[in-house]
Design brief:
The complex is a heterodimer of chains A (111) and B (115). Chain A is mostly beta strands and 111 residues long. Chain A is 0% helix and 53% strand. Chain A has strands at residues 4-6, 11-14, 19-25, 33-38, 45-50, 54-57, 60-65, 70-75, 84-91, 99-101, 105-110. In chain A, strand 9 and strand 10 form a beta hairpin. Chain A is globular, with a radius of gyration of 13 Å. Chain B is an all-beta fold and 115 residues long. Chain B is 0% helix and 54% strand. Chain B has strands spanning 4-7, 10-13, 19-25, 31-38, 42-51, 54-57, 64-67, 73-78, 87-94, 105-106, 110-114. Classes of the chains: A mainly beta (111), B mainly beta (115). At the A-B interface, strand 5, strand 9 and strand 10 of A face strand 4, strand 5 and strand 10 of B.
Chain lengths: 111, 115
Amino acid sequence: RKEVEQDPGPFNVPEGATVAFNCTYSNSASQSFFWYRQDCRKEPKLLMSVYSSGNEDGRFTAQLNRASQYISLLIRDSKLSDSATYLCAVNAHSSASKIIFGSGTRLSIRP
Amino acid sequence: NAGVTQTPKFRVLKTGQSMTLLCAQDMNHEYMYWYRQDPGMGLRLIHYSVGEGTTAKGEVPDGYNVSRLKKQNFLLGLESAAPSQTSVYFCASSYASGPSTDTQYFGPGTRLTVL
């Protein structure tokens, strides 16, 4: 089992829709969780970090479910500019200084 | 405040050539990382450093070497490039490890092609 797994998508949703995707992780001792956004041919940029049960920033909400070992990202009122790949990241089992990234979920918002 | 910068942005090598990628950060971060990103594979950690003068292997270290002689710089070397090392290389840095200090900030990447 991969340490961090994501549905690769693509998720193709209309503008204004609400979309959610999950990321599962294998290390029950992980303490740090992140969602990064990556545009085509660009570097990943931090969207949200999650250290407790969840975090909300405008239209974006991240939820952590420790019992089932997954984090979710919810995007409300989606915009065309939300089209990107969303990477989930979790601190590693063997070393707290290492962050393990998922392969990413592609999201495409259509007009 | 430039954040994390990488040089060069693009490079084409022939098999067997060597090169060094430079990463620099001006945020006084202790931790620095080198990743490679291939289609469908996500980011894979090559080497990392938890402080000046220290380095450690990541998930895919073979064929690469690193050095952290100064806190602000982290160099990635390819001694004898192979076509399998064609990839996009990202450098990242973080203040420390542990909650609230381990957010990683990325450089713009280096696109390397090995022929």
